[in-house]
Structures are given as structure tokens and as C-alpha cells.
Write a structure and sequence with these properties.
The protein is mainly α. Helices cover 71% and strands 3% of the residues. The protein has one domain. A two-stranded antiparallel sheet has the order 1-2.
Length: 262
């Protein structure tokens, strides 16, 4: 086990990496397709039909590369979440197990974003080109993306964000408080076992609601939607617990301070 003084910087480094990756993911999924950057379609002369695209190596090659990047991310994210792998990493990395998982996930996502190959000559599923749609559809998408990201950040307040990022485990270990999950209620542990992605609907909105859905964006949205769907298994009991926790935290936030009550 590493000395306590080394655990805190390691956990903080993992958190900073994850935070920076999250900011970059917002740019990758929202700002680039909505506000410019690499176009997702190459114009009327460059676009091809879907059947012709399946025979064009200039389209298939980048799609195969992008598919490999996504499978790398999904494989890492799923493999390191498996119970046997978690037990192995906990054995050798101890309290840093969660921080290691977060850091590896951030690095895998960085690989996807940095080496993603757009397919500008590929076909598009939909595209807002004619007025007034060319003006209003991007604006509507921008508003929905902003709302979705605000909801994502708000929902994270319901969950123990420090624990999700691995900071709380190290903090409790340094102070000798034990494992944070041991203090969770059975209802909370049940929820965490069913819900690996607490912002599924909002992420789906970000992935699919774009003015132009090109070939590479379709691949990204479809594969991540499939993955999110497989990892999302809430039932009515989980939803009731989520609603109760949200109401409790909203009550705490709205409660007047002692100085204001006088």
C-alpha cells in the first residue's frame, strides 16, 4: 500500500484528468457539431448513398478506425467494471482502485476524441440545409444541448460525485474512516448496482439531436446508445429512491441559513 501522502496526489491527478476529459467531451459531442469545426457532410456533390458508401474504401476505412476506437473505450469501461477485475485491482492498488478506473476511462475517452476520423464524404441520415430550418434547427439543437448538460451536472449532485471519482475513498482511508460504500444504505447500494450511467437520457439527447447526422456521428450515437441501454437497468424501486434523494437534497439547498432566519 502506498503511503498516505502519495494517495492524495494520485487521486487528485485522476480527478483532474477526468474533469478535463469531461470538458473535452462537451466540446467533442456538442460544440464541434453545433458551432462549427470539421463538417459532417461534404455538400451535395460529395455525399453518397448508403449502398454506395458500403463499397467506398475512403468511407469504410475511417469508419472501421472509429469503430475500433469505440470498441476500445467500451471494452475498457466494461472490463474494468467486472467484479473479478475490480477485485484484482483492489488487491494491488487498494484504495486507489476507483481512481485507477476513472483515470483509465478518461484516457480511453481521450483516445476516442483525439484520434476520431470524420467521414465528410459519407451519406447523411438527416441534414438541415434549407431555410428556415438551416437557422432554427441548429438553434433548437443548441438549446437542447445546453439544457441536457445542465441536467447532467444537476443530476450528478444527487449522487456522491466525490465517491464516483475516487476522491472519497482516499479521504476516508487517510482519516481511518473505512470504506465509504460500507456506510451506504441497502437502497443506495441497490441503485448503484443497477445504474452505471446516471445521465442516460440526457446523453442520448446530446448524441442524437444534431442539425446534421453524418455517418461517423451515426456510428458514435448508435454504439453509445446501445452501450448505455445495456448498462441501464432501473426499476420502480430505484426510481422512488432517486426521487426521494432529489427531494431531500433540494430541501437542504432551499433551507434558510441560521443567520438568515433571524
Amino acid at each position: 500500500m502506498a503511503p498516505a501522502l502519495l494517495l492524495v496526489p494520485a487521486a487528485l491527478a485522476s480527478f483532474i484528468l477526468a474533469f478535463g476529459t469531461g470538458v473535452e467531451f462537451v466540446r467533442f459531442t456538442s460544440l464541434r457539431p453545433l458551432l462549427g469545426g470539421i463538417p459532417e457532410s461534404g455538400g451535395p456533390d460529395a455525399r453518397q448513398g448508403w449502398l454506395a458508401a458500403l463499397q467506398d474504401r475512403s468511407i469504410l476505412a475511417p469508419l472501421a478506425w472509429d469503430l475500433g476506437l469505440l470498441l476500445l473505450f467500451v471494452g475498457q469501461h466494461s472490463l474494468m467494471a467486472a467484479e473479478r477485475v475490480k477485485a484484482w485491482t483492489s488487491r494491488y492498488f487498494g484504495v486507489l482502485q476507483r481512481s485507477l478506473y476513472v483515470a483509465c476511462t478518461a484516457l480511453a475517452l481521450q483516445l476516442v476524441m483525439r484520434y476520431w476520423e470524420p467521414v465528410p464524404r459519407g451519406p447523411v441520415l438527416w441534414e438541415a440545409r434549407a431555410e428556415p430550418w438551416a437557422t432554427w434547427v441548429p438553434l433548437l439543437c443548441f438549446v437542447l444541448h445546453v439544457i441536457s448538460w445542465l441536467l447532467i451536472f444537476s443530476i450528478l449532485l444527487v449522487f456522491d460525485y466525490a465517491e464516483l471519482m475516487g476522491l472519497k475513498q482516499v479521504y476516508y482511508h487517510v482519516l481511518g474512516l473505512g470504506e465509504p460504500l460500507a456506510l451506504k444504505s441497502p437502497r443506495a447500494l441497490r441503485l448503484f448496482s443497477h445504474l452505471r450511467h446516471p445521465v442516460c437520457v440526457e446523453l442520448l439527447t446530446v448524441l442524437w439531436v444534431v442539425p446534421t447526422l453524418g455517418t461517423d456521428r451515426l456510428l458514435l450515437a448508435f454504439l453509445l446508445t446501445l452501450y448505455l441501454g445495456l448498462a441501464h437497468g432501473l426499476d420502480q424501486q430505484d426510481l422512488r429512491y432517486l426521487r426521494a434523494q432529489l427531494q431531500r437534497k433540494l430541501h437542504l439547498l432551499s433551507r434558510p441559513q441560521d443567520g438568515e432566519a433571524e
